[in-house]
Write a structure and sequence with these properties.
The chain has 161 residues and is an all-alpha fold. The protein has one domain (6-149). The protein has helices spanning 6-21, 27-31, 35-46, 53-67, 73-87, 97-121, 133-149. The two termini are 27 Å apart.
Length: 161
């Protein structure tokens, strides 16, 4: 895939927001991946010059407004996750696909943990272990993004010398 365009990135983030707002029922509520976060992480790692920490903050605010959660909760969690993701972004070229997979899983789990701490500080009850299922289903969604839009690591050059 060629270099992504800013409009394409924003359209994919908007589609992720629509998927996030889709009315899930039953076990789907527990298993629903964080569509916005997965799309944001993909574009942060694929095109950091077009999608940055400020984009993560705006996407987090949109999540707060659309889900009715405490204002700034997702914004803070997404911004911290974006900072960590971008701090290792240049090294991802050296990572294997399995290492990138585990790195993204750790980022998704870190976001869920950050949101959990913020919810506990706000006085909510401690959720059960089901709270971390979106990190597991989010990594499956990450694979769909990777297969659809391409890998974030550059292909290795063939040396025919």
């Amino acid at each position: 895939m060629d270099k992504p365009r800013r409009l394409f990135i924003y359209i994919s983030l908007f589609l992720a927001l629509l998927c996030q707002l889709f009315p899930w029922t039953g076990q789907g509520i527990i298993l629903r991946p964080d569509f916005m976060l997965v799309a944001l992480l993909y574009w942060l790692l694929r095109a950091p010059y077009l999608c940055n920490i400020a984009t993560a903050w705006v996407v987090g605010l949109l999540m707060d407004l659309s889900t009715g959660s405490l204002l700034g909760q997702h914004a803070l969690a997404f911004t911290l996750t974006a900072f960590i993701a971008l701090s290792f972004q240049r090294r991802l070229v050296l990572f294997t696909a399995l290492q990138i997979f585990s790195y993204v899983f750790v980022l998704l789990a870190f976001t869920r943990l950050t949101l959990l701490v913020l919810k506990l500080f706000a006085g909510h009850e401690a959720p059960s272990w089901h709270y971390f299922w979106p990190a597991v289903t989010g990594i499956i969604l990450w694979q769909i993004f990777r297969l659809t839009f391409g890998s974030i690591a550059r292909p290795k050059a063939n040396r025919a010398d």
